């Protein structure tokens, strides 16, 4: 089952339900700072999410910190040594960087995912 998400001001959060406390819970993802929120109803959860983001942005501004963005375009990829070697060889033989090869592979995956309706 796909996880549900909320979106606000370029930030996204996964949401779930805590049956022990009988509340909805959310966590902003894609940034290092920890932003969590909760609510007893969907409306309360959404307001709490918006308040969490607004507060985060205000605190960053107050202290002169640049707010983190969800996607910087940079991430580490862990793979097998064999795939690493084959991708590096392909890149070298075809005039690409390894980053370009990884990006092309990801683009192909996403196109095929859309075609398959996944």
Structure commentary:
The protein has a four-stranded antiparallel β-sheet with strand order 1-2-3-4, with helices on one face. The mean pLDDT is about 90. With about 120 residues, the protein is an alpha+beta fold. The protein folds into two domains: about 5-60, 2-Layer Sandwich (Double Stranded RNA Binding Domain); about 80-115. Strand 1 (about 5-10) and strand 2 (about 10-20) form a beta hairpin. The relative contact order is 0.10. The longest helix is centred in the middle third of the chain and has 21 residues, at about 40-60. Helix 2 crosses helix 3 (about 100-115). The protein is built from three helices and four strands; from the N terminus they run E-E-E-E-H-H-H.
- Helix and strand string, N-terminal first? EEEEHHH
If you compute it from the alpha carbons, what radius of gyration comes out, rounded to the nearest whole angstrom?
Answer: 19 Å
Structural class: alpha+beta
Strand order of the largest sheet: 1-2-3-4
- Quaternary organization: single chain
Count every helix, treating DSSP H or I runs of 4 or more residues as helices: 3
Percent of residues in beta strands: 15-25%
Output the CATH topology of the largest domain.
Double Stranded RNA Binding Domain
Helical content (DSSP H or I, runs of 4+): 40-55%
Largest sheet: 4 strands, antiparallel
Count the strands? 4
Mean pLDDT: 92
Shape: elongated
Q: Name the CATH class of the largest domain.
A: Alpha Beta
CATH architecture field of the largest domain: 2-Layer Sandwich
User: Can you tell me the residue ranges where pLDDT is under 50 for at least 5 consecutive residues?
Assistant: none
